[in-house]
C-alpha cells in the first residue's frame, strides 16, 4: 500500500468542507410550509477553533444572546484540536438552532494544526453569509455587536469594520488597549505602520463576503505567520477602507496561549518597513527619521538603498538621549511627554501627509 501525500491526507480528513446551502422555509397564509430557493444568510460568524474548550461556553452563550434580528449562522472549523472543543460546540447546537442560528462544524484530525489562516479560510468556504463576523473562540461578543457592525458594514461594503474592546484580565496590555480604543477615524488609516499591527484589530473584524473575496484568502503559512496583518495590508492595497463602531462590542481576552504570541517582532517589523516603503517613502523625495536612538538606526538599516539615500537627518526631542548616544526605552503615557506632538503642531504638519508614525 503506497504512502499518502500529506496534502491529500489533510483533504481526506476534512469533514464536509462545502456543504449545500441551507434552504429557508416560509409559511403561506394556509400555514403550509414551503421550500424556497437556495439562499444565503445575512451574517456568518466565522470561528476557527484550536483547543479552546475552556472558553467556548462563554463565547457561544454570547452568540445566542445577540440582539440582531436578521438571519445568522455559526461556521466553525476545528484545526486538529486535541481537547473536546468539537464536542463542546456540538453540545451548543440545539440552543443555537433554537435561536434560529444555523450551525456548520467541520475540521481535520491531522497530527498538527494547519494554522489560523487555514482555519479561517475553511470556515468561510463552508459558510454562506453575505457578511462575515470574525470571532475568536476565546473572546466574548457583547449582545449588540452583530447588529451594530452589520449596520456599519452595509454602509461601507469595501471596508473592514472594527469596534472598541474591553481587555481581560483588566489592566493587561493597558497601553495597547488604550491605543485600540482611542484612535480617531483618520488615524485608523494614518497609523497603519505602527508597531501595534492592524489599527482595526482582527478579533473585531466584520466585512462583506464580496470584499473578502476581492482581497483574497488569508495566508496559510501556519504558526508564526501574521495572517491578519498580511490580509490587512492587502485590503489597503486593494483600496479598502477602515471603520470602527465607537462602542465596546467585544471582550478581548489576553492569555499566554494566544496565537499572536507565536509571531516574532522581527517578522512584524519587516512587514511594516516594506509596507512603509511601498506606500509612503516611495512618494517622498527626502525625509528625516525622528529618533536618534536604537529604533531610528534600526529603521534606517532596514530601508532599501534608494530610501537610505533619501534620509537627510536623524532628529530627536530628547537632548539627553542625543548626548548619551544611545536609546533607552522608558515606559510612559506617550514616549516624549507631549513634546513631539507640540513640535508637529507648531510646524502645522499633517499626519499622513507630512509625517507618519512608524513605532
How many strands in all?
Answer: 12
Which band does the percent of strand residues land in? 15-25%
Structural class: alpha/beta
CATH level-3 fold name of the largest domain: Spore Coat Polysaccharide Biosynthesis Protein SpsA, Chain A
CATH top level assignment of the largest domain: Alpha Beta
Q: Oligomerization state of this entry?
A: single chain
Count of DSSP helices? 15
Query: What is the first-to-last residue Cα distance?
Result: 56 Å
Q: Which descriptor suits the 3D outline?
A: elongated
InterPro entries: Glyco_trans_2-like, Nucleotide-diphossugar_trans
Pfam families: Glycos_transf_2
Protein name: UDP-GlcNAc:betaGal beta-1,3-N-acetylglucosaminyltransferase-like 1
GO molecular function: hexosyltransferase activity
What's the helix and strand layout?
Blueprint: H1 6-13, E1 23-27, E2 33-38, E3 41-49, H2 53-64, E4 72-79, H3 85-91, H4 93-98, E5 101-108, H5 116-125, E6 129-134, E7 140-141, H6 145-155, E8 159-168, H7 174-182, H8 185-190, E9 206-208, H9 209-215, H10 227-237, E10 241-253, H11 265-279, E11 287-290, H12 294-302, H13 305-308, E12 311-315, H14 319-324, H15 339-346
InterPro entries: Glyco_trans_2-like, Nucleotide-diphossugar_trans
Protein name: UDP-GlcNAc:betaGal beta-1,3-N-acetylglucosaminyltransferase-like 1
Pfam families: Glycos_transf_2
Structure description:
The chain has 359 residues and is α/β, with parallel strands linked by helices. It folds into 2 domains: 11-21 and 38-259, Spore Coat Polysaccharide Biosynthesis Protein SpsA, Chain A; 280-346, no CATH class. The protein has 15 helices and 12 strands. The chain has helices spanning 6-13, 53-64, 85-91, 93-98, 116-125, 145-155, 174-182, 185-190, 209-215, 227-237, 265-279, 294-302, 305-308, 319-324, 339-346; strands spanning 23-27, 33-38, 41-49, 72-79, 101-108, 129-134, 140-141, 159-168, 206-208, 241-253, 287-290, 311-315. The strands form 4 sheets. The chain has a 5-stranded mixed beta sheet, sandwiched between helices. Strand 1 (23-27) and strand 2 (33-38) form a beta hairpin. Helix 2 packs parallel to helix 3. The longest helix is centred in the last third of the chain and has 15 residues, at 265-279. The chain is elongated. The model is unreliable at 1-38 and 325-335 (pLDDT under 50).
Amino acid at each position: 500500500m503506497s504512502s499518502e501525500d500529506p496534502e491529500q491526507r489533510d483533504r481526506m480528513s476534512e469533514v464536509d468542507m462545502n456543504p449545500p446551502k441551507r434552504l429557508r422555509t416560509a409559511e403561506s397564509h394556509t400555514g403550509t410550509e414551503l421550500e424556497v430557493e437556495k439562499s444565503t444568510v445575512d451574517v456568518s460568524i466565522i470561528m476557527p477553533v484550536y483547543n479552546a474548550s475552556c472558553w467556548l461556553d462563554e463565547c457561544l452563550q454570547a452568540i445566542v444572546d445577540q440582539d440582531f434580528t436578521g438571519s445568522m449562522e455559526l461556521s466553525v472549523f476545528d484545526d486538529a484540536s486535541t481537547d473536546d472543543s468539537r464536542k463542546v460546540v456540538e453540545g451548543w447546537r440545539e440552543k443555537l438552532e433554537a435561536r434560529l442560528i444555523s450551525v456548520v462544524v467541520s475540521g481535520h484530525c491531522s497530527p498538527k494544526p494547519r494554522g489560523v489562516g487555514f482555519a479561517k479560510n475553511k470556515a468561510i468556504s463552508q459558510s454562506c453569509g453575505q457578511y462575515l463576523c470574525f470571532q475568536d473562540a476565546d473572546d466574548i461578543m457583547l449582545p449588540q455587536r452583530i447588529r451594530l457592525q452589520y449596520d456599519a458594514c452595509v454602509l461601507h461594503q469595501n471596508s473592514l469594520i472594527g469596534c472598541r474592546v474591553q481587555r481581560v484580565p483588566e489592566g493587561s496590555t493597558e497601553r495597547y488597549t488604550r491605543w485600540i480604543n482611542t484612535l480617531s477615524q483618520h488615524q485608523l488609516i494614518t497609523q497603519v505602520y505602527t508597531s501595534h499591527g492592524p489599527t482595526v484589530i482582527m478579533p473585531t473584524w466584520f466585512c462583506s463576503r464580496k470584499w473578502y473575496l476581492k482581497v483574497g484568502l488569508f495566508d496559510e503559512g501556519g504558526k508564526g505567520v501574521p495572517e491578519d496583518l498580511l490580509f490587512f495590508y492587502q485590503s489597503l492595497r486593494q483600496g479598502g477602507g477602515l471603520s470602527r463602531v465607537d462602542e465596546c462590542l467585544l471582550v478581548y481576552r489576553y492569555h499566554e496561549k494566544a496565537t499572536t504570541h507565536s509571531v516574532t517582532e522581527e517578522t512584524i517589523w519587516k512587514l511594516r518597513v516594506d509596507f512603509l516603503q511601498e506606500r509612503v517613502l516611495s512618494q517622498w523625495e527626502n525625509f528625516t527619521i525622528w529618533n536618534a536612538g536604537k529604533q531610528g538606526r534600526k529603521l534606517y538599516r532596514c530601508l532599501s538603498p534608494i530610501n537610505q539615500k533619501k534620509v537627510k537627518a536623524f532628529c530627536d526631542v530628547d537632548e539627553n538621549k542625543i548626548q548619551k548616544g544611545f536609546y533607552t526605552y522608558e515606559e510612559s503615557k506617550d514616549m516624549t511627554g507631549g513634546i513631539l506632538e507640540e513640535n508637529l503642531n507648531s510646524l502645522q504638519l499633517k499626519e499622513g501627509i507630512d509625517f507618519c508614525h512608524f513605532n
